[in-house]
Input
Amino acid sequence: MNGMDGSSLGSVSGSEGVSRAGFVAIVGRPNVGKSTLLNRLVGQKISIVSSKAQTTRHRVTGILSADNVQFVFVDTPGFQTRRGNALNRAMNRAVSQALAGVDLVFFVVEAGRFSDEDRAALDAVPLETHVVLVINKVDRLDDKSHLLPFIDQMRGLRDFAEIVPVSAEHGRNCDALVAAAAPLLPEGQPIYGSDEITDRGERFFAAEFLREKLFRLLGDELPYGLTVEIEKFETEGRLRRIHAAVIVDKPAHKGIVIGKGGEKLKKAASQARIEMEKLFDGKVFLETWVKVRSGWADNERALKSLGYE
Output
């Protein structure tokens, strides 16, 4: 998919004019800001964001081309350690598969916090892989003097190629992150066109944007038993006609998603449609409904049919 806005980052180039291009996995436990970082680096929203774990369930590729350097970022699901159903196994497989084919890893942690979940995610990164430690959310540190001791603590865990504190939400120091990482990419020609920002298609983003809005509106009412399936996607010039089914696990969940008088589903669909129109650069007609598919999150065949890897 081609981008409209391009990247908001400053000029970046390979060392001594050498062309560089490579794949970079963005890895970490859930909710450390991986998707926010990807969106900031690419300069456009391509990975959905909410405060809920499991918001990112698929690998999402974002492309940053600047001067003679191209980063192909892979935003991975947060490494799952608490739930053992088929959905979580699929997400962890997505992480492992992404790590197997990349040139560099951005390992993201939250400033001042390193938990057992962070450790499990770091242990999943092969030792031979070059890793840049990205310390995110530095703007939320109450006492900034705690940052340097935290960096020293992290240095003892692994031989990181670079350590860069950032605020992905506010864009702070993200240009320095890209500049530090550029020389670590292998020499080579661009993998994608300079105007491309992702390898995912519009159908994928339609499902993801609707799921994000539902996650945000439903709060803790239905945290994990929900996904979205696009049943029809038609393009007529700059108009998209999209039919989306919201899949839930239990009949009782159907009413929760729809809301009183259909209010919640309508609100989620309206918000998702606005974001689709911005990304697709055209009008969207979005029709939604809710279907019950019991046990979908623990059914390998169902997950495959829904596009989970």
Observations:
- DSSP finds nine helices and nine strands in the chain.
- The beta strands are 20-27, 60-66, 69-75, 104-110, 131-136, 162-165, 226-236, 239-248, 284-292.
- The first strand starts at residue 20 and ends at 27.
